[in-house]
Amino acid sequence: MEIQENIDLAPYTTYKIGGPARFFAACKSDEDVLEALSWAKKKDIPYFILGGGSNVLVADSGYEGLVISLQNDSYEINDKTLNAGAGVLMSTLVEETTEAAMAGLEWAGGLPGQLGGAIRGNAGAFGGEMKDIIKSVRVITPKGKVKTFKNKKCDFAYRSSIFKQQPGHIILSAQIELKKGDRDALLERVAELVEHRRSRHPLDYGNCGSVFKRKSLDDIPKEVFERYPEIEGAIRNGQVATAFFIDQAGLKKKRIGGAEVSERHPNFIVNKTGTAKAEHVMMLASAVKSRVLHQFGVLIEEEIHYLH
């Protein structure tokens, strides 16, 4: 395991934005991660765990600490259990489990990023969530111990977990519970969801996926339902799609620098020109929040992580 210096982070993120990491370690095993952590603690410098980079906006100035890039991408299916490293791409796991006629991950068809990040943020789509399939997660605790957390101990919540609430925890690998399924039906469902994302999401440009979390119905002022009856079409599982508010506020195609609110999906802020700065994305996100709050009385919250 080698500690590199001044490594450009933009290529490691789906936004393709951001400055360099002062120090960088590509970790392909648990031992590599532990070694990198030990190095950071001896040097008394901060560290950040970087997975697939699909939910991260790196500051234009970069990061002064150590970036630990998780590249432990081994996996195996034993009976109805999938054992996988945190660095495996979700697309790989969806493809492999589906081909093996194992159900449980098909809802993640087209989902970007790695397993570790999906667990940390309790990723979900099309009625599925990580919390529904996780049996256990192996982690390094803030005290440097390797422990196994059963599902309940992970404190899964909407787009959250103990690993997000207490960032000192580092996900190494996980056990995922699968079920026997019909291979052809699973393949068809995955293809359908991949096409859904391709047709509705602005995947031609650098992006981080949805910028803002959905809003609970309890957080929406009653007068909004009276003034905007079409909001009914944006409600699912007791939550309102934030894209509805952004669209109704007339913010599609609003641009600051190289960053733009997507016309195809307004909850995406895209690197439209390929030259957007992190500052442009942050300023645009702030402008969107301000407009939505002013027009609807609804405070929307980012789900993207800002690394600086």
Task: Summarize the structure in words.
It is a single chain. This protein has 308 residues and is an alpha+beta fold. Helices cover 27% and strands 27% of the residues. The protein contains eight helices and 21 strands. The protein has helices at residues 30-43, 90-99, 115-120, 162-165, 183-200, 222-227, 242-248, 278-296; strands at residues 3-8, 20-27, 47-50, 56-58, 63-70, 75-78, 81-85, 102-103, 124-125, 128-129, 134-140, 146-150, 170-177, 179-180, 215-216, 235-236, 239-240, 255-256, 259-261, 269-271, 305-307. It has a five-stranded antiparallel sheet with strand order 6-7-13-11-12. A hairpin with a 7-residue loop joins strand 19 and strand 20 (269-271). The radius of gyration is 20 Å and the shape is globular.
Descriptive key words:
5-stranded antiparallel beta sheet; alpha+beta; 4-stranded mixed beta sheet; 27% strand; 308 residues
Short structural summary:
With 308 residues, the chain is α+β, with helices and mostly antiparallel strands. The protein has helices at residues 30-43, 90-99, 115-120, 162-165, 183-200, 222-227, 242-248, 278-296; strands at residues 3-8, 20-27, 47-50, 56-58, 63-70, 75-78, 81-85, 102-103, 124-125, 128-129, 134-140, 146-150, 170-177, 179-180, 215-216, 235-236, 239-240, 255-256, 259-261, 269-271, 305-307.
